[in-house]
Specification:
This protein is of the alpha/beta class. The chain is about 50% helix and about 15% strand. The strands form three sheets. Strands 2-1-3-5-4 form a five-stranded mixed beta sheet, with helices on both faces. The longest helix has 24 residues, at about 490-515. The chain is globular, with a radius of gyration of 26 Å.
């Protein structure tokens, strides 16, 4: 019989969601206040330290992102023998499951529904506990992950009261509210960090399972952040002359890889915003190195820093650096990319791509990232700024679009709305997530791959000009949308709508003066 912890009642004075989904529209400030009164202050304060926001940011000055919970959901769904359960408003769960399967998830997502009664009375927590017990089948899974979305978090649903283990199956509960975690990229770290903490505590408690291939015969470098599958192999080849090997990539694909990751000599923060994960490596006594082996300068600096952190002799470090220098010098010395570019994204690897573009000869004017500045990407920011590149961390869509209009690039690399705007004004563009992030970045292979796709895209300008000349203004302005007849502009409708809006504005001002 599994041991469970008794439910602790939430204060009657704590604000609760009044109906399913009702609190979704209450605004971030109201939901944060409700969550703090409901006992989530410690969680939100930790998130504020780990994933800082711009305090002065307004509602339209937010970083671009999907629903943040998608990041945690993706990490859970990619792990073998792991069941993932969501608790949130039905519309949110529908969107998250749709997106996860769109991106290739091949397993079901659990869902604990709620309504006003179960949310306010505490029955929702009982339902969650029942769902977790039902999923905790050791013949099928090693871990069950339960994720609170916005409304359950704001209402203080206490996942921390769930048992840590049921029938030998690990139970991990996390809160991933949109008002607490800024981007889906950082939400990956929320679950990855929670798993590393659980695994570290298991290691401290006694012997744990060895990786499938056994422990590495040489010291390893664990890699933080999702990467193209070829990149860890390329990094391993770079490390080999120093007597090092590439360790697991965190987030991992199965639980025992977490033990191997913590068993490293050095942790490499390839994605520098994995703050909770970095904290676990540091707690385990592992040094952490930022940036990544991209471009010639980036690769030489990274190998030097990793080698020093791992205690490798300088002679071996020089051997590794010289090998990469010889391999990359020929390609990068040709400066094969010619063109003015702006770059933006929300995956967290934007600065690395920017460095590679600059070393490949691109006239890069702007790089915007939805992720924050951290100690682990400070060197990349300094390097880019020294090359004359405008760097904007926690970039909003408006800032990315303003940069595109300001610099008039020959190629705009960005998120979906940036790409859409660029194509509307006949600027060739590439979607960062699918066309840039989903390819190797490290070493010679990374440079060669990026050069090919970027130069090909820049070469499409004539095609855009021909399409613009052929279609003209069809489908724009008053003719936008689907018409069954020839579009007709009706300026009188616009004038009437403007008159009504001005009338409402005057009425509102008069009421304010009267009060």
């Amino acid at each position: 019989m599994a041991r469970t912890i008794p439910i602790q009642s939430v204060s009657a004075n704590a604000p609760q969601a009044t109906a399913e989904g009702g609190a979704c529209h209450a605004g971030a400030e109201h939901m944060q206040a409700a969550a703090r009164q409901a006992g989530k202050s410690e969680v939100l304060e930790q998130y504020a330290r780990d994933y800082p926001r711009k305090q002065e940011a307004g509602p339209h000055d937010q970083p671009q992102s999907m629903c943040p919970a998608f990041g945690s959901l993706r990490v859970g769904l990619r792990m073998r023998r792991t069941a993932t359960i969501l608790c949130g408003s039905a519309c949110c769960v529908y969107g998250l499951t749709f997106t996860s399967h769109f991106y290739g998830a091949r397993r079901s997502v659990g869902y604990v529904p709620f309504n006003s009664e179960t949310l306010v009375t505490g029955k929702l927590f009982e339902d969650i506990r029942e769902a977790v017990h039902a999923e905790a089948d050791p013949d099928k899974v090693d871990t069950v992950v339960i994720i609170n979305l916005c409304v359950p978090t704001a209402s203080g649903v206490p996942l921390q009261l769930l048992p840590k283990e049921i029938n030998g199956v690990r139970i991990i509960g996390i809160d991933v509210p949109g008002f607490g975690v800024p981007t889906h990229a950082e939400a990956k770290d929320v679950l990855a960090g929670a798993m590393l903490r659980y695994a570290r505590e298991e290691i401290m408690s006694g012997p744990v399972a060895t990786p499938k291939g056994g422990r590495s015969a040489v010291p390893t470098v664990s890699l933080l952040g999702e990467m193209f599958p070829a990149d860890p192999v390329i990094i391993g080849q770079m490390l080999a002359p120093m007597g090092l090997a590439a360790g697991p990539v965190v987030p991992t694909r199965e639980w025992r890889e977490l033990y191997a990751a913590l068993d490293c000599s050095v942790a490499a923060a390839i994605h520098p915003f994995y703050t909770a994960s970095i904290r676990e490596f540091q707690t385990a006594g592992r040094p952490v190195v930022g940036s990544a082996p991209v471009g010639l300068e980036g690769t030489l600096d990274w190998l030097q820093n990793v080698g020093q952190a791992a205690g490798v002799d300088q002679e071996l470090i020089d051997v590794a650096r010289n090998q990469q220098f010889s391999a990359m010098r020929g390609l990068l010395s040709q400066r094969p990319i010619t063109g003015r570019i702006t770059l933006s994204g929300y995956e967290g690897s934007e600065l690395l791509v920017a460095r590679l573009l600059v070393e490949c000869g691109a006239d890069l004017r702007y790089v915007g990232s939805a992720c924050p500045a951290t100690p682990w990407n400070a060197h990349d920011i300094d390097w880019l700024q020294a090359q004359g590149v405008q760097v904007q961390m926690r970039a909003s869509l408006e800032q990315d679009l303003a940069a595109m209009h300001e610099y008039q690039p020959q190629l705009a690399i960005g998120t979906t709305p940036v790409v859409q705007k660029a194509k509307q004004v006949s600027i060739p563009s590439l979607y960062f997530t699918n066309l840039i992030s989903a390819r190797p970045l490290m070493g010679v292979a990374g440079a060669g791959s990026l050069v090919q796709v970027v130069q090909s895209a820049i070469g499409n300008q004539q095609r855009f000009d021909e399409m613009k000349a052929f279609f003209g203004e069809v489908g724009s302005g008053h003719a936008a949308g689907v018409w069954e007849s020839v579009p007709v502009d009706r300026p009188e409708f616009k004038a009437e709508t403007r008159r009504l809006l001005e009338k409402q504005l005057k009425k509102r001002k008069a009421e304010e003066m009267g009060t």
